[in-house]
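Input.
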Amino acid sequence: MRPLPPPAHTFVAKVVLLSLSLFVFSGSLSLGVVWMRQEIFSTKRRNCELEVQIKKARNQLNEVRSEVSTAISPSTLLKQNTDMKLGLVLPKEIQVQRIAESPELVLIQKRNSYRFTQNTTASDNFSESAAASAIAGASSTATSFRVITDKSYR
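Output.
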């Protein structure tokens, strides 16, 4: 005897199941595309709002800068001095101290001056030659220091 062919309804059931799964897959893919477009749109809207806020902040900053520049101009300061009867005068040349070096380096040296002492070991903030002489136990009268900035300290 020959084997009987499978019933026709099993083939139809497979086709229906396959087409249904294809429909569900394409539907979920379509929903994913719609959700992604919605996210892109909302991100674009948030970016536009942030750009508006940045423009407002820049305008406010420019206004404050202009107010500060007019407030510290010498003519405005002299006018306020006379209006308020403060009696302030410009400094005389003898009262002015000129700095020949870079003001940044002078301020750095002032800020770091407490870190440098004459009685330090090699692990302190000496230059290499001073550290080598301290390790060797050599006594030197001229100790060389180096300026420590945030970049050179690391």
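Helices lie at 8-71, 74-83, 103-111, 128-136, 150-153.
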